Fold:
Amino acid sequence: MALVHTHFYSAALGMQRTIDVVLPQSASGIGVGGTESGGNIPVLYLLHGWSDDHTIWQRRTSIERYALEKGLAVIMPGSDLGFYTDMKYGYDFWEFFSNELPQIVAEFFPRLSTKREDTFVAGLSMGGFGALKLGINCPERFAAAASLSGLTDPLWQYRANRVNEDWLNIFGDEDEIRGSSSDIHFKLEELIASGKPMPRFYQTCGTEDFLYEINVAFRDRFKDRIDLTYHEEPGIHEWGYWDRNIQRIINWLPIAANSDSAKSTTKGAK
Structure:
């Protein structure tokens, strides 16, 4: 696998941004194999949480090794504290993630597939919210969306008296969330009612996580009406849990059997 650090200008945000990209590579090295990679490489957009940045998945997990066997490219962008949202006072991160970033990835990495069936999104905590938001609001783009310990209902912050200045700068008051792209319960109800094709969904959350109850509420509301895989196990809001479960999610992704990049050439040390 190759790791590419990409710096570019974002018109949506009006500033330079960085994404890190893991790409399949046919050559193998000591202790790690290669993957035959033609065109139409499947893509996972992997989103970070509140306190993190675009480097965190590489630093806290072995995401490169996990993606290797699937011939999967991994796009790791940054949202700062923007919560994957066009902020009330701040930057248009939703416009960046939902519209501009896929165009930039297609322009810079033409071997990556742009087909819906090859495109997936996952994230943890704040990024779990972002993954669900993208999957629900952009079902024509994503075949699967996965949330690890995600904030599955931003209105919960108001009910739980967890709203602070940062939150108000992002979303504004409660009424400004309702019915918006960030109201993912409402938008998923709309999507179900529309009859349009939907992504497959995956949820996982630790039973001791402070977000466990709202994850269970999301599961119980939608489990019989969408294609939802739900997993829970003992755990809190921490990287040991996310490292274990991103492996489950990568194995769950509906990567096409005939993908040009799915043939592993793993070899032993030389």
